Amino acid sequence: MRVGVVGVGVISQQYFEHFPALPGLELTAVADIDVDRAQSVGGAQGVRGTSVDELIAAADIDVVLNLTIPAAHAEIATRALEAGKHVYGEKPLAMSTAEAQPVLDLARRSGLRVGSAPDTVLGSGIQTARTALDDGLIGSPVGAAVSWSAPGHELWHPAPAFYYQPGGGPLLDMGPYYLTSLVSFFGPVVRVSGASTRSDRERTIATGSAAGTPLRVDIDTHVVAVLEHANGVVSTVTVSFEVWATRAPLFEVYGTAGTLGVPDPNRFSDTVSIADAGTREWRDLPTSAGYTDAGRGYGLADMAHAIATDRPHRASGDLAFHVLEVMEAVSTAAREHTVVEVRSRVDRPDTVPADATPGSW
């Protein structure tokens, strides 16, 4: 399947690194609003660099890999679908469910696929954790706790302004990794509550050509949510750009017979640990599922293979829509100090077998 990449920013390099390992995908062209930059990156990748309009209209592109900023996700996806192309994009699916729903509706009418990051959850870390839960290694799950925090992306990102504007923030930036994992573990979320805040500290870009430039903050930077899943599990999620240091566990699941230590869902492979009710001592679990040594682009490759074999793809637009609605509901609950019902439902995606390789899912 011939791939055209729209957006050649920081994240694009991680996709380019893994294209050679993904059979069935052929990087054909790249595009950016900065055409000179697209041509430079295209030259480095051995493909043509062009304008966004030209790439979307090109006859030799089957799927658009949308790596633009969140505010452009829905627009680029819509234009690609209207041009008869499948779409796989970075998270979030769109800025809102109101933007995202027409994208999914258009794809269904057109017989095209929409996929969305994160695909890190297809790696051996999260897939091994899910298999442990499905196999009952901690009994029946009761609750889960997530605590992701950092002082802010301006310390490392050369152009971090969009993280602090609508469509950014810790919930929309980091939430999809954890929420996608939780939905994969326990199924859809039906109800949420939450609270959020922001500090008044001054933020300044620390690196790159804009170093020293002050940042305007237009979103809340510390968010706490309580999620009720359809199966009865209750998850708590904290995501923050306000924390300089923490000892809080990143991700744990609590069951009737033990506790599961879940690895970072922003990474493809890491160790899963367990403490059972008998010993209450931690031990590591062997890898039992998921892609090993994987990287960004595996979700796109899974989608391409699913199209070829006429099966559902795992990193689907429907899953990304549900996660987006959950995040939207958390923001509403925090703003209005209320409990919000989540209307969409989604099936848990299929697990990835332990021996899976790209092209043999």
Notes on the protein architecture:
With 361 residues, this protein is an alpha/beta fold. The chain has nine helices and 17 strands. It has helices at residues 12-18, 35-45, 52-57, 73-82, 97-110, 124-134, 169-186, 298-309, 317-336; strands at residues 2-6, 26-31, 48-50, 63-66, 86-89, 114-116, 141-149, 189-197, 203-204, 214-215, 222-229, 234-240, 251-255, 258-261, 272-276, 282-285, 340-341. The strands form three sheets. It has a nine-stranded mixed sheet, with helices on one face. A six-stranded parallel sheet has the order 3-2-1-4-5-6, sandwiched between helices. The chain has a two-stranded antiparallel sheet with strand order 9-10. The mean pLDDT is 96.
- Domain count: 2
Mean model confidence by pLDDT: 96
Low-pLDDT segments, ≥5 res? none
Question: Which percent bin holds the helix content?
Answer: 25-40%
CATH H-level homologous superfamily name of the largest domain: Dihydrodipicolinate Reductase, domain 2
List the helices and strands and how they pair.
Elements: E1 2-6, H1 12-18, E2 26-31, H2 35-45, E3 48-50, H3 52-57, E4 63-66, H4 73-82, E5 86-89, H5 97-110, E6 114-116, H6 124-134, E7 141-149, H7 169-186, E8 189-197, E9 203-204, E10 214-215, E11 222-229, E12 234-240, E13 251-255, E14 258-261, E15 272-276, E16 282-285, H8 298-309, H9 317-336, E17 340-341
Parallel strand pairs: 1-2, 1-4, 2-3, 4-5, 5-6, 7-12
Antiparallel strand pairs: 7-13, 8-11, 8-17, 9-10, 11-12, 13-14, 14-15, 15-16
Helix pairs in contact: 4-5, 5-9, 7-9
